[in-house]
Amino acid sequence: MTQQERQDAIVALVKRQGYAAIEQLTEHFAVTPQTIRRDLNALANEGLIRRVHGGAGLESSTVNTAYQTRKTLNLEAKRRIASLLAAQIPDHASLFINIGTSNEIVAEALRGHHGLEVITNNLNVAAILQHNEDFNVIIAGGQVRSRDGGIIGEATIDFINQFKVDFGIIGISGIDEDGSLLEFDYQEVRVAQAIIHNSRQVFLIADHSKFHRNAVVRQGKITQIDALFTDRRPPESICRLLENHDVALHIAGQETSAYAPAESTI
Question: Please, which of 19, 107, 117, 266 could form a disulfide with 125 given CB 3.0 to 4.6 Å?
Fold first, then answer.
């Protein structure tokens, strides 16, 4: 068993049980306690588990990780995914970009484009793109969340519903094994649903830590999007959904998948 296979198995075991002790994991995988501690620390740094004394438990399904922490989680993977996604956006396109640290990195990757019209409910995205003189950046109205610069509420939804754009770029907090897209904030979800409804194509950016991550609010289904951009092959249950519903899969740094004709690599 490779290190990656063992770590994936640890996450699956913790999810089934809710908690796993170092002693149990050492015996189960026939490795040293030091190896298990390194695995748990690495998984906790990726936001996949919660490190507790003597073992590991699940991350909260009701409270998201702090914004400043999320900005640094899987940063290099997010940059690779963002570059891959940005390569799919042509110059002079119109697009929504919603809330999330991954979307902010996408905004940075789009700064080399020309003539984009960007509608966003993310103050950080607007700040990143404001210096591109040939961009038209439009900020949605509504309530500003102090913790991350996200704009939410009924006014935001009404604003989004005035547009029909080429691409909707959305992030997500978790993707369940049945393909449910999960978030923590009901108001944020409603804005994202409006973005999906008003986009001709919907691109979802999600690094590998989002698969099987728990969150309390259902945003929709992965089958509603047109393309998934990630850094590792998703679990098989997700792959089957993508294949059966013609959702393109883009994996940064890997070869093209046979069932995703629109996939590209970087």
Answer: 107
